[in-house]
Specification:
Layout lengths: L1 H35 L2 E7 L14 E7 L18 E2 L14 E2 L7 E9 L12 E8 L11 E17 L2 E11 L3 H7 L3 E7 L3
Antiparallel strand pairs: 1-2, 3-4, 5-8, 6-7, 6-9, 7-8
Length: 202
């Protein structure tokens, strides 16, 4: 009788333990599901942001995304990146990674420069964020042999591009981020002839 009673107690205990483990497992699954579906407010780029550009208010937007997948990798809505300098390319409509921007003053030595180029001197399939080089084609004197193209800027990122038509022909406005010590040379080049934009692949 004692043996049977002990056996029943052991069976009942095992049953209760099994039920408890099952309940814990279900609760854990529910908790994980709740946590994984939690939404958080994060910042995304409203346009292509390239290295050297300074972030402005219009460059960012708040979106709600899954928190579990992001951890501390991206900027949240309560952070303010305005005035920061982009150090890694940030595609349009993508989240802004913490490591893609910096507020260090030694990196804020760049400037954004707008240039107007002829439409035929800009590749048709080029887009903001592409790597480019810019060459100068000097205006040749009548009867003179044209000079060789001169490299003005090498391997930089194209910031903003705006194609437009006018009564004087098609042209495009581009924005690039360059070092402040390069501004004078680039502007000087615009007075000598045409600027030709070359898209770099790879």
């Amino acid at each position: 009788m004692t043996f049977m009673s002990t056996k029943k107690s052991t069976t009942r205990a095992r049953f209760l333990i099994a039920i408890s483990l099952m309940v814990v497992s279900i609760l854990s699954s529910v908790l994980i599901s709740i946590l994984s579906n939690q939404k958080g407010s994060y910042l995304i780029a409203t346009r292509e942001l390239t290295p050297g550009q300074q972030i402005s208010v219009s460059d960012i937007e708040i979106v709600n995304v899954n928190v579990a997948a992001l951890a501390n990798t991206y900027l949240t809505a309560d952070q303010n990146p305005v005035g920061s300098i982009v150090i890694n390319r940030i595609p349009r409509r993508s989240l802004i990674a913490n490591q893609s921007i910096s507020t260090k003053t030694d990196l804020i030595n760049s400037a954004e420069l707008s240039l107007t180029v002829r439409a035929i001197d800009l590749p048709a399939n080029i887009a903001a964020g592409d790597r480019i080089s810019i060459y100068l084609l000097e205006d040749a004197e009548p009867g003179a042999f044209p000079s060789d193209p001169e490299l003005v800027l090498s391997d930089i990122y194209l910031g903003i591009i705006e194609r437009k038509n006018s009564n004087f022909g098609s042209e495009a406005a581009i924005t690039i981020a360059i070092g402040r010590n390069e501004i004078a040379d680039v502007l000087r080049a615009t007075t000598y002839g045409r600027l030709v934009v070359v898209k770099l692949n790879g």
